[in-house]
Amino acid sequence: MRITLSKDFPYQIMFFVAVGITYFNIYELSLAIWLLLAVVTIKRYYSVPFLWLVASFVAIFVIAFSRTFFYDHNTYNIIRDIAYFIKPIIGLIIGYQCFRGSDNNFFKVVLYISLILAVIHLCMVGHAVLFKFLKDLMQIRAHAGFFSDFETFGLIVVLFHKKFNLNLSKRAYWIYLLIIGLSLLFYFARTNMIQFVMVALGMLGLYTITQKKLTLLAVFGLVSVLGFQWVVSTNPTRNAPGIEGFLYKVKNAPREIYDPYVVNDNTARFHDNFRSYETQVTILQMLSRDDLGIWLGNGLGATVNYGRLMWTTESSRVRHAPILHNGYTTVFLKAGIIGLLFFFWSMLFLFFYGKRSSSTYLNNIKLLINSTGLFLFVSTLVFLGLYFKMDNKSLFIGGLLAYYEIQRKLLSDNAI
Questions:
Q1: Whole-prediction pTM value?
Q2: For residues 327-353, b (16+ Cβ closer than 10 Å) or e, as one string?
Q3: Residue 392 pLDDT > 60
Q4: 109-143 b/e with 16+ CB inside 10 Å = b?
C-alpha cells in the first residue's frame, strides 16, 4: 500500500501525538497536550449524535462537580478528579475533530500509527531481554509496557482490511500482521485479548441474531469454557515466571472482577482480588450514608477508605483512594446511580449506533463502532475504561465516528 500525504496530514500528525503521548504514562503532560490539541483542531459544527455521546460524559462530570460542594474533600483530590473526568470528553473531541476532512482515511492512519507503536514496543522488549537480561514476564512488561488498546484496534484493521476498503497487498498484509501481532503477543495483556476477540466477533457479524450465529457463539462459548477449565486444571502457580504466571492471571480473572469472600487480611487472595475488594468497600461506604449519595454520588474528590495503607503503581502508599480500578465503581462513587445510568447509556449508544445502509463499507464501520461499545462494557469492569489515565480509546472512537459520518455524507451526496 503506497503512502500518500493528504491535505489533512497535519491532523494525522496531531492525532498521532495525542495517541503516542498516552504511552509515556505522564498524565499531566498528556492532559496538557490533549487540551492544546482540542483547541487547535476545534471545528465550527458537530453532529447531533456525537454531541449526545459527549453529553453523557458532561452529565457525569456536572453531577459529580455539583456534589463536591456538599463535602469537605481534599483540594488536590478535587483537582485531580476534574482532570480525570474531563479526559473522555477531550479525547472524543480530539478524535472527532482530527477526522472531519473528506481526504483523511481513518483506517490508514490507524495502521500507520499501530505499526510505529509496535516497532517501538518490540525494540523495548528486545532491550529488556538482550541488554537488561530480564527473563521474568512481569519485569519485561514493566519495562516495555503492560497493554496497548490502540495496537489491538490496528490488528483488527489489518485482519479485516478488505472490509475497510484498504485492500492491502499480500506483502503489506503480512508485514503489518507480523509486526503488530508480535508486539501484542509480548504485552500478554488479558484485556487486549478480550478486546481482540470481542471486536473480531463483532466484525464477523456474530452479534446480530440468527440461528447460525447463535450456534457459532455457542460453540465459541463452549470452547472458551473448556479452555478455562483446562487452565484451572493445570493449576498454574502464583508469581510463576513466563507463561505460567500469565495463566494464573487468566485462572483468577473471574474472582478478580468480583469475589464476595475477599477480606482485608493481607493474604494472596486479597492482593489478587483487590479490585473486588475495592468494589465491596465502595458499595458499603455509599450505603452507609443517608444524603442521596447513593443516587448522586459523593462528588469530585471523594475517596474510599481501604482500611490500611496500600502500595500503588507509583510506589506510594495510600489509605484513602480517590480513583479506583473499576470504572463503574469510580463513577458510582463520584456521581452515584444517576451517573452510572449516563455511563451505561454512552456504551449503549455506541452498541446501537448507526442504521443499516445499502453500503457494505458503511455497515462494516458501523460493526466496528458497535463492537467497540460492547467491549467497553467488559473492559470497564477491570479498568477505568475511558477514564483510565493511559487510555486512548476515546481518541479512536471519536475519530471513527467522524469518519463514519463523513463517509455517510459522501455516499448521500453521490446518490443525489
A1: 0.88
A2: bbbbbbbbbbebbbebbeebbebbbeb
A3: yes
A4: bbbbbbbbbbeebbebbeebeeeeebeebbebbee
